[in-house]
Model the fold of this input.
Amino acid sequence: MSDATPTPTATPERPQLPAQSPPVDPAETAVASEAATTSNRLSWWRGDSGEGARRNLGLIGVLVVLVIIGAVSRWDLYSNPDWVWDNTLTILKLASVVGVVTVGMTFVIIGGGIDLSVGAIVALSAVWATTVATQSYGAGGMIFTALVVGLSVGVVNGILISYGRLVPFIATLAMLVAARGLAAEISNKQTQLSNNTFINNIASEKVLGIPLLVYILAAVVAAGWVLLNRTTFGRRTVAVGGNPEAARLAGINVRRHTLLLYALSGLCCGIAAIMLTAQANSAQAATANLYELDAIAAAIIGGTLLSGGRGTIIGSLLGVIIFSTITNLFAINGLSSEAQNMVKGGIIVAAVLVQQVQFRSITQFLGRNRLTSS
Amino acid sequence: MNLRSPGAKPTVSEEETVAQPEENAAVAGASLVEAPADTVAGEVVLRLTDVVKTFPGVRALDGVQLEVRAGEVHCLLGQNGAGKSTLIKVLAGVHQPDSGLIEWRGEPTTFANPQAAMRAGIATIYQELDLVEDLSVGENAFLGHEPRRLGFVRRGQMVRRTRQILGRLGHGDIHPKRMVRALPAAGKQIVSMARALSHEARLIIMDEPSAVLAHDEVGNLFRIIRELTAQGIAVIYISHRLEEIREIGDRVTVLKDGRTTAANLPARDTPTRDLVSRMTGRSIEYVFPERPAAGPAGAELLQVEGLTRAGEFADVSLDVRAGEIVGIAGLVGSGRSELLETIYGARRADAGTVRMAGRALRAGVGAAVRAGMGMAPEERKSQALLLGEPIYRNVTLSTFSRYARFGFTNVAAEQAEANRIADDLELRPRDVRRPVRTLSGGNQQKVVVGRWLLGDTKLLLLDEPTRGVDIGARAELYQVIRGLAAQGVGVLLVSSEVPEVLGLADRVLVMREGRVVREAPAGELDENTVLDLVMAGSLMEGAPA
Amino acid sequence: MTQHSPDLSRRRMLFGGVAVGAGVLLAGCTSNESSPTTAQTKAAATGVNNEPGKKVVIGFSAPADDHGWIAAITNNAKAQAGAFSDVELKPVAAGADPAAQRAALSTLVSQKPDVIVVLPHDGKELNAFGLEAMTAGIPVVNLDRAFPDARAYRLQIKGDNYGMGVAAATYIIAQLKAKGVSNPIIGEIPGIDALELTQERSKGFNDTLAASGFKVANRRPAEFTVDSGQQAATGLFQALPKIDAIWNHDDDQGVGVMAAINQSGRKEFFMVGGAGSKKAMEDIQADNTVLKATVTYSPSMASSAISLARLIGQGKGMSDLVELQVPKEIVLASETITKENASSYLKLGF
Done:
């Protein structure tokens, strides 16, 4: 091997440019040896999950701060451990519906797209699942309907975007309007009560002291995490979002995968529709209002890059939980929702700013490493 | 798996040994060819000394020397990726150099931003003209420095001054109030120049101004350039077309791999072959692996017949056998990269067929990959790599599903395979979990090539595999490519570096203007013959060759 | 490649079958037949006004909100018009915002109806339209959301938002006093907080409570939708471990509030609703939930508006009044519906 490798320094007619183009970049060898010694110690920081893991620690820090603010402002409530436990479950329940939607949204955004129609899909699925005719099929029929409606709308989105070559923003914006319109048409603008006790009980049932909705959220998050981090589907998602041209030239079917991403988002909306129907014991066309913005905001503060190619499910989940914790914090202090919205907006901006600074410092760190070690 | 051909010994290819000594001296960069500045009398307005600009993984400028005098047309020559765009951006204040000296009218300077460069009197006319289509000619000319009083734009004065400037450019026929959108490309170019003059520019940089013009419009452009230089304005003129440089240029500086390989050559008298060889020739001695003694007699692998894409290439037929390296030589614009992408299914052919092992391929990259093709595209970063992702995921980008079971990725197996590839290719640094972003250009290219060493690639399409790759890594890449051929993989190689094609390929096709003009075993061609073929269209009448 | 094709096509067919089956099932699932909307029609039973008179063309416009109350307004108007043989109703879609409604109304004016009944998106923003129509000689009946300029309408008929708050507070105070609660914890779940009607309701509620020395402990606004009602109520329960009384402004979002109450298992308080939906009235009548009363803001005003528009068109007065013409302003009283009187109001529930 070594004798087959030419060493260009031995080439007789090498031009005399001492400073330029050394045969083997000393910076690289230096970095290589340094990496070899530190990779074990720093692999967690530097490995593929390092950046994401560190960002998630930051989000958990934000959560801790929010809880401390809550405890200081309402010590009368926080001093009761039972209340704290119950409140924690309430926050998670509050996060559950948007959380499920956000998992789908995270996939779409990592894959380089955006889905503005999620709120409308949730409303349409919920309305369709609670019509009198659907309810006559029982809980199974309602669940099946919600899932199929969500999935189908997602597939339509996917076809418009991947094969119809519409910009995701436009296609899903059109779907937002159309799906709400269809939902209003089906429901005749009325609130449709769910008379199915099985469905309604999903929201009140507890298993081992934890609400069923929280289990559903946990299951969807776990499935999403596995799908993103451990399957070929997730790998394709990152590739398609990170560099669609490279993915295409590597033989990945970018269009089909894009379609699947929107279908997945639609399916998540179908699941969320059942949860929302259970929570409200009813459905209406105006329900799930602005969920798309909640989901996008949660994904972004969770570290998902809006241009695609980077993001974590855990980060998105933390984003949703931070938002529902803020809502809870304002509720227990009796503060107005206007102030709450201002704080939410501030947190979105702050999170993105912090991430940009972090990202820049990481690249600078790596760059400096290369230069200084030569 | 040893990727290198068994028993391969490093040998210096034949062309190397006959290299002319004077050419070497010119190329070495330490002692640049200085032509007597007989044609230029103006003072030096701009001087660059040893300017270096690096981006993560790339040394875009690696010691550039440039001297521009008032009233001259100074031509900048170089292949794609030679560093011309970066150099322009450094002069325009978009990038700041890492080291080196820029002297502007005798004063050492750096431009913190484009506005600073503008104020100093350097105007840049980019290839994609940066005009606001829905503003008028006058508004574009004075964009950002409109004549104003108390915050109100003095429209009358703006129109009057625009008319004056257009008159200086010999284009009083363009009305200052016309919308830019309504102008033809040539007219828009005039507006860009008017903008430069509205800034009282002393140096105008033109990036391939003729690319957007029809043939007869180029004459008009040249007339304007001559009027500008007659007023003492210096022009840096960038073009791939040698005949234009002959006609309008005073002196020529040649860039290659971010370095000045020749400076201040007389534009009219320098032999074409000298210019081209300084652009495309070796700047260092290449070390090519030895060809196997017996010619390759593998089975038919790739057969291309009558392949055509309108405006890019026409009626191309070629074939590659197993274990054979076929090289395509040609300049930028000869249709070589487009041809490769069409064979790979990334572009749709207008006519013709592509067969792999006798079977016609369906459209699309997926079919090509399944048939055993792999491609390392021209633009590594934008077309081949996920820069933020770890090395191993880039290596397995087209094969990760093979290691997966029931859709679950097998990261351990992927890393093991990537490690094997990294060992074989001597990837540095070796940690395959590092992001590709942190690698040098050469090592990034190894990742792209390494991708196709996994799986059962039968035919490898390589587009400019050594662009931006340092010499050490180059030699290794050559070894890898030759080693692959020894194992029976067919290779179709595109390069604008003629010695590389001649040194590496078994058989060579020369492309010019979208057509194959010559096909021959590499042994029957020499560099000069190929250079003549490659640029026959750009040869100036009467130029000494 | 090719050997996979049969397999693929079979899979496709299978999927196609499932898709078609699902499609058929889902198409059937949009049916809502067993919940017909009942309209609150009441043709005047007595008097000369009931006799068919001059034919009156009434233009009608209400927002296209996805809300039960608004839907009831439109349904009531249509049903009431149908009850008169001499009334022709010309409904125009009001679109999603004031601008869209203004455009729709302009086309309506050009058709020269005899009277226009309009529930504007926003009274202030559409005031100019009222002036324009009145100037053109078309009487305007302004429904619920008031035009500020008195010249912009012939008749204004509206609910009493401030009075709703007063009624709700009055009921709550009476109940608490009867129970002997001295320092009660009162929660409030308003609708969209940015709307003027919400602010008026809350003001009436607070003013009345304050007169008795009570105050609202916490107020969590919802958005008139069921899911927002559920979330607002959940937040309220977290903030207040013990509650004596709640006023929920809107029975539509109240469906979600009731769901949240069931899910939390809280029942130490009683609740007063708002608007007067049929579901709320049924719950009050059954008396098996915490909902003990609701204060009306009835969409029946749309039925009345059509009746009065007809009279205006025919130049008649209200037969029970001495005046020869219909009055200029009518403000509906907000009534309190309890278990005792629910049965008589049930037909007005929407």
